[in-house]
Design goal:
Number of domains: 1
Structural class: mainly alpha
Shape: elongated
Order of helices and strands: HHHHH
Helix content: over 70%
Number of helices: 5
Number of strands: 0
Largest sheet: none
Distance between the termini: 45 Å
CATH class: Mainly Alpha
CATH superfamily: Cytochrome c oxidase, subunit III, four-helix bundle
Length: 193
């Protein structure tokens, strides 16, 4: 496919998709760096390998997976011209995303209650990485929630149709990426002791 061909709108749409993928690739590289540093640091003598992740992290994982499903259902509803159902699914996705963040902070509280801190004399390198990786992911989920709010407002204004899904598709792609990224991170932190 020749990327220089097509209408101005088609070129604009391709450019927006390409920019999103550049951003996603940049995020992948950042998280790959942090997980690589985690692996290298796990060879240190002061590395604690018997730390259990907080239960709230596992519950939040289920919620973010469910939120990807609701985003997919919203897109299908728009394609079926069921705008009301699409709006309901997008609101559900938003609620699940907010619940994900709340559970992440509950997980941080559970770690603090167990005596694990990000910094300070009672901190350790493994917990610092877990706090860092989870927190940076939360920041990106907040960005995902902002994009989801934009999608939701546009949906409520009647912008999306089966023939015009670009904003919805871009938002969904970013959201699914955040979902897959968290699943990777939780599996990584669970198995890399």
């Amino acid at each position: 496919m020749d990327l220089t061909q097509g209408t101005a709108q088609e070129k604009n749409n391709r450019a927006k998709k390409m920019m999103l993928w550049f951003g996603i690739i940049s995020l992948i590289m950042g998280f790959a760096g942090w997980t690589s540093a985690y692996i290298v640091s796990s060879k240190r003598e002061d590395w604690l390998d018997n730390i259990l992740l907080p239960q709230a992290f596992y519950i939040s994982t289920a919620l973010i997976i469910l939120s990807s499903i609701t985003y997919i259902l919203a897109k299908r509803a728009v394609k079926s011209d069921n705008q009301k159902l699409a709006s309901i699914w997008l609101c559900t996705t938003l609620g699940l995303g907010i619940a994900f963040i709340i559970l992440q902070f509950i997980g941080f509280s559970q770690m603090l209650e167990s005596g694990y801190y990000f910094t300070g004399p009672t901190s350790n390198i493994k917990m610092s990485y877990i706090f860092l990786i989870a927190f940076v992911h939360i920041v990106h989920v907040v960005a995902g929630l902002i994009s989801l709010l934009v999608v939701l407002v546009q949906q409520l204004r009647g912008k999306y149709t089966a023939a015009n899904l670009l904003g919805l598709e871009l938002g969904a792609t970013f959201w699914h990426f955040l979902d897959i990224l968290w699943v990777y991170l939780i599996v990584f932190m669970f198995f890399v002791k």
